């Protein structure tokens, strides 16, 4: 029976690990000591100096997680560099039936994972904890979490609270009552990526943020409604922009929707702002994402010193929603569509409550 | 290579304002093409010397095209020739789903910390200025740190073989097709007749202004530095310029039909008659009211075409559809099993297009600018009373273009056409 506790863990107040005897402990020391080292790094962590635009600060990020060997991985999983993307990035892809099936499955898995992640969102939960579960859920479903090591991104999903526009890195910061947080999930299953995201409310959230979230979702769905063969890709921006400008919100311009399939990001490029020169029209068999990022005031963005986290230049909040779309002969199919397990939107919950009241 | 100073992020208060005034300084990017020996390098040297005198900071992007990937061959140096930075290391935030190419994103990130007044892209003879123009022609909405000023083509007046079918001639024509202004250099070494002939040949290829220079010295550098060739209204200016004194347009009125166009078709010099039966010895061929069935479309030939549509109005949606067809038909589709690779080698290609449009349902001018796969239709000042008779005009430069097809295609974009 293992009764020997690591004295250092006791001293540091870390959860105890038990060993049979001194010999056993000594053998395990090299690996076990990593826990103490990480703890020390976590304590020592300070956000780098930067002209932060809002209240949010970076927190400690845990080391990159591993993915078991039996999971099929994209080319960048080891090297960090998506070589195949760089080679084929300008080519438009028309998927055949078999590929469409593969993409559908990846999107279905992505939706499952996002739904589970969404239900985790509440005050006190850290984005790191969400990432741990997302990582596990992907592997359980035989999928690789696409963001992991993509251009050396350190985590398995992106978590973007409040003024973060996109690409937030899951870290030790606990979500706070009143926050909004976007969770962006992409999974790689059997050679295909499925990409989607939603912005969730943390506890009770102010009216302005709720309005922002709803308007953002609506702008995405309006764009999707317009999607069909021969629709100009550059016109999605017109629709999204028009809807958001009505509420005096602005559309982020630096990041766009993108083609997806066997590659994570490829042609076409789908801007969300109006007056853009996007190339191409929708063709049956094309698959791409639409993912508007909408800000309360300024459209401008800045990037944190971690070279990933994009925040609003004025520090005000930003919301985003994303779907992977497949263009069909008559319109489009939302491959990442919501299910009965998806966390209800605040306006759906409100309606539910209203309906209950009126039915009484 | 930063002269000792580390990169710091400057906080720019003004930048955060919501108004989209372009009061923020954006650095003009001018692409300069020309063969070794054309005087391109000397021209750049003159420009650098002149600008340095007024303490302007210049950077040069050198493009040593090797055909692999455009961006891999771009190196940024300052006006002393020192490498400015390894742009790959700067990054510019995540570029995985970004509107800018990696290179431009890195360049704009750099420009937040290093000030430049002008950036030149120096292209080798075989570089494709069109691809570079496409890369630097950003959406205005981005209010980026740079904007595309234009393309300057430098040639040696002693060029005897602009019409030839050899690699050098072809590459030269390709370069010049994208030029917004051509510098014909070393004119002191040739006679007036040669200059006249070359000017005429150039005009068929691309009817932009040709400035005659000796030892690469230009008269008015400021104009060159301020071409603004991709601004919407530059389309109108370019078309007026293209109409010039040497072109004639034969007009047919009434019946709501578009008039015939004057096409400045380029005829490569074959040993005698053209294989297509046009016995061309004159430089420019004038369009007639009824276009002959035999159009001169030669392999490889790059030429400029001018289309004028009188007494009709353009239906913008039809025009967009037409542009989507002609500009994007050749876009590579990644092959899948069972999909045949489309054979695109014989297709016509539009390289550069400028248009002044009279649009149905609008009292405003509309401008069209296009290069390779990019196009933009924007509005301008309202038509005035005197403009009543002004028609829609297009200057189109491309390869293997069929003048009749172009005209028919555009005519079909007019309201009332089926």
Automatic annotation (TrEMBL), chain A:
Binds 2 divalent metal cations per subunit. Has a high-affinity and a low affinity metal-binding site. The true nature of the physiological cofactor is under debate. The enzyme is active with zinc, cobalt, manganese or divalent iron ions. Has high activity with zinc; zinc cofactor is transferred into the active site region by the ZNG1 zinc chaperone. Binds 2 divalent metal cations per subunit. Has a high-affinity and a low affinity metal-binding site. The true nature of the physiological cofactor is under debate. The enzyme is active with cobalt, zinc, manganese or divalent iron ions. Keywords: Aminopeptidase, Cytoplasm, Hydrolase, Metal-binding, Protease, Zinc, Zinc-finger. One of its GO terms (molecular function) is metalloaminopeptidase activity. It comes from the Eukaryota. Zn(2+) 3 binds at residues 184, 195, 322. It is found in: Cytoplasm. PROSITE patterns: MAP_1 (PS00680), ZF_C6H2 (PS52013). Belongs to the peptidase M24A family. Methionine aminopeptidase type 1 subfamily. Cotranslationally removes the N-terminal methionine from nascent proteins. The N-terminal methionine is often cleaved when the second residue in the primary sequence is small and uncharged (Met-Ala-, Cys, Gly, Pro, Ser, Thr, or Val). This is Methionine aminopeptidase. It comes from Lotharella globosa.
From TrEMBL, chain B:
Keywords: Chaperone, GTP-binding, Hydrolase, Nucleotide-binding, Zinc. Residues 28-207 form the CobW/HypB/UreG nucleotide-binding domain. Belongs to the SIMIBI class G3E GTPase family. ZNG1 subfamily. It catalyses: GTP + H2O = GDP + phosphate + H(+). Gene3D superfamilies: CobW-like, C-terminal domain, P-loop containing nucleotide triphosphate hydrolases. Residues 1-25 are annotated as: Disordered. InterPro entries: CobW-likC_sf (IPR036627), CobW-like_C (IPR011629), CobW/HypB/UreG_nucleotide-bd (IPR003495), P-loop_NTPase (IPR027417), Zinc-reg_GTPase_activator (IPR051316). This is CobW C-terminal domain-containing protein. It holds the Pfam family cobW. Signal peptide: none annotated. Transmembrane segments: none annotated.
């Amino acid at each position: 029976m293992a009764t020997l506790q690591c004295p250092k863990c006791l001293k540091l107040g870390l959860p105890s690990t038990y060993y049979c005897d001194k010999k056993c402990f000594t053998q395990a020391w090299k690996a076990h000591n990593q826990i103490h080292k990480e703890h020390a790094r976590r304590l020592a962590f300070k956000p780098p100096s930067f002209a932060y635009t809002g209240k949010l600060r970076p927190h400690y990020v845990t080391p990159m997680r591993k993915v078991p060997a039996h999971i099929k991985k994209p080319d960048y999983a080891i090297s960090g560099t998506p070589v195949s993307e760089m080679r084929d990035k300008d080519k438009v892809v028309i998927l055949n039936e078999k590929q469409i099936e593969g993409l559908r499955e990846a999107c279905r898995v992505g939706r499952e994972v996002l739904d589970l992640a969404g239900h985790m969102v509440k005050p006190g939960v850290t984005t790191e904890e969400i990432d741990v579960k997302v990582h596990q859920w992907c592997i359980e479903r035989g999928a690789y979490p696409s963001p992991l090591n993509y251009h050396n991104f350190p985590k398995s999903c992106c978590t973007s609270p409040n003024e973060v526009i996109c690409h937030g890195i899951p870290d030790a910061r606990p979500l706070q009552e009143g926050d909004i947080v976007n969770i962006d999930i992409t999974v790689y299953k059997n050679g295909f990526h499925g990409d989607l995201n939603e912005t969730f409310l943390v506890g009770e959230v102010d009216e302005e943020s709720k309005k922002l979230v709803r308007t953002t979702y609506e702008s995405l769905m309006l764009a999707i409604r317009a999607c069909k063969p021969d629709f100009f890709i550059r016109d999605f921006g017109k629709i999204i922009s028009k809807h958001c400008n009505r509420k005096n919100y602005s559309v982020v311009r630096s990041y766009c929707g993108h083609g997806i399939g066997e590659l994570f990001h490829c042609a076409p490029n789908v801007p969300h702002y109006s007056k853009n020169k996007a190339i191409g029209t929708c063709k049956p068999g094309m698959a791409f994402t639409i993912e508007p990022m909408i800000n309360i005031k300024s459209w401008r963005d800045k990037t944190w010193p971690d070279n990933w986290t994009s925040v609003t230049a004025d520090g005000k909040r930003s919301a985003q929603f994303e779907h992977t779309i497949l263009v069909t002969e008559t319109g489009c199919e939302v491959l990442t569509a919501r299910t009965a397990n998806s966390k209800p939107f605040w306006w759906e919950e409100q309606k539910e409550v209203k309906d209950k009241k009126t039915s009484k | 290579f930063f002269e000792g100073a580390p990169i710091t992020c400057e906080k720019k208060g003004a930048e955060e304002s919501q108004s989209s005034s372009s009061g923020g300084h954006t650095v003009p990017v001018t692409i300069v093409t020309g063969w070794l020996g054309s005087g391109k390098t000397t021209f750049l040297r003159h420009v650098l010397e002149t600008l340095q005198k007024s303490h302007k900071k210049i950077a040069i992007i050198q493009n040593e095209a090797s055909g692999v990937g455009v961006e891999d061959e771009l190196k940024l140096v300052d006006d002393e020739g020192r490498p400015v930075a390894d742009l790959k290391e700067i990054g510019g935030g995540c570029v995985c789903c970004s509107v800018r190419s990696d290179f431009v994103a890195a360049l704009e990130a750099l420009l937040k910390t290093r000030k430049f007044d002008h950036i030149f892209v120096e292209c080798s003879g075989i570089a494709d200025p069109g691809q570079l123009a496409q890369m630097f022609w950003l959406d205005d909405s981005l209010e980026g740190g740079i904007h595309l000023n234009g393309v300057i083509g430098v040639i040696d007046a002693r060029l005897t073989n602009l019409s030839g079918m050899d690699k050098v001639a072809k590459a030269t024509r390709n370069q010049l097709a994208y030029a917004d202004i051509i510098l014909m250099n070393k004119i002191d070494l040739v006679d007036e007749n040669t200059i006249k002939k070359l000017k005429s040949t150039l005009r068929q290829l691309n009817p932009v202004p040709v400035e005659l220079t000796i030892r690469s010295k230009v008269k008015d550098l400021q104009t060159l530095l301020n071409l603004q060739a991709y601004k919407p209204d530059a389309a109108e200016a370019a078309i007026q310029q293209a109409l010039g004194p040497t072109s004639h347009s034969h007009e047919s009125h009434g019946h709501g039909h578009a008039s015939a166009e004057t096409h400045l078709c380029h005829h490569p010099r074959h040993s005698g008659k053209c294989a297509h039966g046009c016995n061309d010895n004159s430089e420019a061929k004038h369009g007639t009211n009824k276009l002959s069935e035999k159009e001169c479309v030669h392999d490889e030939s790059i030429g400029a075409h001018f289309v004028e549509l009188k007494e009709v109005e353009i239906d913008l949606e039809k025009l967009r559809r037409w542009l989507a067809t002609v500009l994007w038909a050749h876009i590579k589709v990644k092959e899948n099993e069972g999909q045949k690779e489309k054979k695109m080698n014989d297709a016509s290609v539009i390289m550069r297009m400028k248009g002044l449009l009279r649009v149905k349902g609008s009292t405003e001018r509309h401008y069209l600018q296009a290069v390779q796969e990019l196009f933009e239709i924007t509005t301008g000042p309202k038509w005035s009373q005197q403009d009543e008779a002004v028609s829609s005009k297009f200057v189109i430069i491309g390869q293997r273009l069929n003048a009749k097809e172009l005209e028919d295609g555009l005519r079909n974009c007019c309201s009332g056409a089926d």
